[in-house]
Amino acid sequence: MIHTSEERKRIEKKFSKLLTLAKRSQSKENQNIIKKAFKIADEAHKTMRRKSGEPYIFHPIEVAEIIADEIGLGTTSIVCSLLHDVVEDTDYTIEDMENIFNKKVARIIDGLTKIENKIDDTDKNKIISKANTLRKVLMTITEDIRVIFIKLADRLHNMRTLDSMKQMKQIRTSNETLYIYAPLAHRLGLYNIKTELEDLCLKYMRPEIYKKISEKIKDNVEKRSFFIKNFSLPISEELKKRNIKHIVDGRPKSIYSIWTKMQKKKIQIGEVFDILAIRIVFQPKNENIDLQKEECWKIYAIITNKYKPHPDRLRDWISTPKANGYKALHTTIMGPKGKWIEIQIRTEKMNEMAEIGYASHLKYKGYKETEKKLNKWLQQVRMSLENSSTDPLTFLDNFKLNLFASEILVFTPKGEIKTFPKGSTVLDFAFEIHTEIANKSVAAKINKNLVPLNTVLKSGDQIEMITSNKQEPQRNWLSFVKTSKALTSLKSVFKNERKRHIFAGRKLLEERIINELNLKLTTDVFKKILNLYSLKLKDDIYYAIGNGDIDLFDLTENSMRESYTNDKLEDILLVDNLENSSYILAECCKPKLGNNNIISYRGKEKNIIIHKRNCKKVLEDIEKYGENIILNVRWSKKKIHNFLTHIKLEGLDRLGIVNDLTTIISKELGVNMKSIVFRSDNGVFQGEIGLFVKSLKDLENLMQSLEKLDNIKKIIQIYNV
After folding, report:
1. Beta strands in 267-339 (DSSP E)
2. Catalytic residue among 89, 176, 397, 660
């Protein structure tokens, strides 16, 4: 449907407003470029309408207006905002954009174009498609951060116009926004956009709560204005006496933040004491950041001379800015009529950084500190993308970890400040310092006290890592690291380790089967090998061989000629239907419990002795007594008698660790021990315990129970039962 004359007037009026708001694009050249982009977008979308029924072109104009007015970006960003859906929804291509404009515009628009879902339209594939699109956006922002600003402006306008969508679409879009886009806006320092996104999400996800809180805030508008005026008057008078140009601005906390505080503290809206925040934004007299910091503290002194501060609610975000670049001095004071009020003290530049975050970096060249933080974050994003899993859902989960988390500040041994997501561990700290330090870490000292690697950090901690050249990355580390840097580094190590074991295992297996047994590695032979070891995939066999879990001498000509069933091998022995017969596992070859590559015969005491098929002792006895002594054996589902095995443990030494281990083994699990040996060196212990167990499953359960002890870092079986 072509636009009506009334719609054309509205379109022209909206675009005219955009040109006025584009304060950084007022030159004739820049205005002509924006008009050129609008003309293309207007023509491309002329037959398209939104779900609300209004012309589609309204959307790119509104997105461009957010970019120009609310974020304050320039011509290129406005052009790309107007054209952000043209390639995705029309016949235009990225090449067209490059030919009409330039490579920079084409690259940004390409980053904003969704990855098409060519599989099917299920919910899971929609999520996969969106995850892939987000990954594409993030890959592009490492080259040009304007991509994510436009993506957030696009999402903000879609949220503002969500009323026209069905309820399920509203809830799904709000969930996605709250899950990814609001935290992303927060990470970039776009406070106003982050706040509005969160409030709009609450509006559609919890409409009754949203209405109740918003009405409560509206009811108090006049009272709040009167309160702010009376409260700020004595402060403003003091600031004027000192010739400090300033603005006092008071606004209520966001609806979403009030609701989350109510949920967290289980209180009603009337009990949220800091519902009102007052900002004092001043024009500094000095360009030097250290002198500006002094000015902030002088204003703090003026305020606290008038009003009593809360002793536990002082936050210095100037000395240690937040990860998104936010700087301010926060305090909470007791105001008139016994009300607590949060005060935020900022310079004009700090205030702009607080409102539009890293976007202010694009406006002020040479803002070195902000640029440094921005580049560090982009470097982390780039590393996360390069090392991330190919699974888009896993990537999405890993990426969101660092968006959601609150932050803590800790110190290196030299006093350097490091920022981490709340809940980060000692090992996360090690990976931030250097990957090689992390890979060799065995423990740490926090404030000079020895702690294990999974210890959670707290703000103010000073951490010193303890390393050992014998240490290697452990798979259980994945269960407690928090940061995406640590996760991606560990996954990369284990992925490469598995590849190496698979490659080595393939060569060893081919050498055994082809060169030593003179057999062809056919599909039938491989099936027999898989059945022999109860595995399903070739790579699993290769990995087990390369890792040393499978002994290739188990593979003999006889074992390759025999056929094996696919039945799951269990923990009990059936011998010629003599289910209750006693038996032992031979010490000479130590056959594996549950492995059917075994042979047996009766010993002098009439008990059944189990050997590996290629055991030399068996071959000697067959030659001596003949083949009639051999019994047919396999494992079944019944319980077996106890057999001896050994486990090796490593961890952090502490008083009582041996007692804790033996208590779990003997008292809690009822397992008998034959021997126990422990050695300690530099705060790290190694131990070996001989155990009598009934089955592999019982052994696995025992090892899992021991792994739950904080100081235990590694447990392996060193002798097969």
Report:
1. 276-282, 308-316, 329-334
2. 89
Q: Three-class SS of residue 337?
A: helix
Superfamily holding 405-482 = Beta-grasp domain (3.10.20.30)
Q: Are strands 276-282 and 340-347 parallel, antiparallel or unpaired?
A: parallel
**For residue 161, is pLDDT > 90?**
yes
CA angle 351, 81, 358 (to 5 degrees): 25
Find the catalytic residue in 12, 43, 88, 237. Answer: 88
Domains of the chain by residue range = 5-213, 216-364, 405-482, 483-563, 567-641, 643-719
Closest by CA position to 636, among listed 593, 673, 604, 675: 593
Q: What is the pLDDT of residue 518?
A: 81
To 5 degrees, how large is the angle CA 119–CA 124–CA 130?
80
pLDDT of residue 93: 92
213-to-162, 194, 199, 314 alpha-carbon distances in Å: 20, 18, 11, 27
The pLDDT of residue 335 is: 82
Annotated active-site residue 62? The verdict is no
Q: Which CATH class is domain 643-719?
A: alpha beta
The pTM of the full predicted model, rounded to 2 decimals, is 0.59
Q: Contact, 612 vs 597, CB < 8 A?
A: yes
Contacts (Cβ under 8 Å, ≥6 apart) of 350: 281, 318, 327, 328
89 counts as catalytic: yes
**pLDDT tens digits for 312-351?**
888 898 888 877 778 899 998 888 777 788 899 999 988 8
Whether the pLDDT of residue 604 is over 70: the answer is no
CATH (one of 3.40.50.11810, 3.40.50.970, 1.10.3210.10, 3.40.50.10490) for 5-213 = 1.10.3210.10
The predicted-structure confidence for 620-668, as pLDDT tens digits, reads as follows 776 666 666 677 666 543 344 466 778 888 888 777 788 888 888 887 7
Contact indicator for 184, 152 with CB cutoff of 8 Å = yes
Does CATH number 3.30.460.10 belong to domain 216-364? yes
